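name: query_chain
kind: protein
chains: 1
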Amino acid sequence: MIVALLSAVPLFAEDPGSVSLRYGRQDNAVRVVLEAGDEFIKKSSIATTNQAVVIEFPETFQLKKQQDFMFETSQKDRVLTIVLKDVTDVSSYKLTSPSRIVVDLKTVQKPSKGPQARPEAKPKLDTPQPAPLKTQPQAAQAPGKTPRSRTVVLDAGHGGHDNGMVNKDIKEKDLNLGIAKDLSAALVKKGLTVHLTRKADQAVSLIDRIIFSSGKKPDVFISFHAAPADSFSVYCAATDDPGADPVIRAYSIAARQAKHLDKSRALSKAVAASLGREFKTTVMTRQLPLPVLTSSDAPSVLIEYPMTGKYAYDRKMLERLVKALVQGFEAYEQ
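structure:
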């Protein structure tokens, strides 16, 4: 048992800034355990994909790693990244007494050798039975067509202590939330299910936004921010720089966004065209390796609206903006 493997090497953290990492393995099951002080574990945030585990601790830390640990790790400031390889499933949770983070992994099953090997039976071990059911209805429903989006996640940037841009008495965090709520109401009226990464003036970390969005399995992800410019811009993901921050690399376009990139570009063009028509202006479309986009497992865009005083964001202006966004979304759906 993996538990027995781990119990053979006691886990401990010598001081509050120390994180101890051990692992155990049996067949294609791997358990990784990180132990630290109670508050250190309690205040940490975890994000997982089949390519990486990213843990943000409340403070900088010293990692004490089992010498033969099977995966590459990197750390920068408060963030620990475990780069995974040949992993088909990841789950994580926190435990107490002692306080620890447990990450359970399922690796690729090695094919058996010899005449007794039965390859046809192995997919039952590695692939959950319901998986084929997810694709069959879509193919039967509209062969060759993109299924209509039904679930949307709207991300209001900033919040809490993070005001974002401030122009006179207007704060970006408040505008972001207002736009997200108004657009949510408009999309709900059209029969869509909409989730907001934040519903109030609260601070939400990047990792928490990623975890929240991933859990909702959206068909579309849209993030809102302001810019010190006189025009709108719409961003979609781009291949990240190999020398970029490890957190960005962990959520690289190859990991999640790659299969959605064409749809993300189409969504950005549709939204930009609609904004341009409504406000009679040129709207820039750009590709950048923004973590909030590259980490998304759905067609995704980030919309920047001008906050230089060119537009007064009163009720009439917000209605025009939401109208343009809805029309852009509908054009993308056609």
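note: The CA atoms of residues 21 and 34 lie 5 Å apart.
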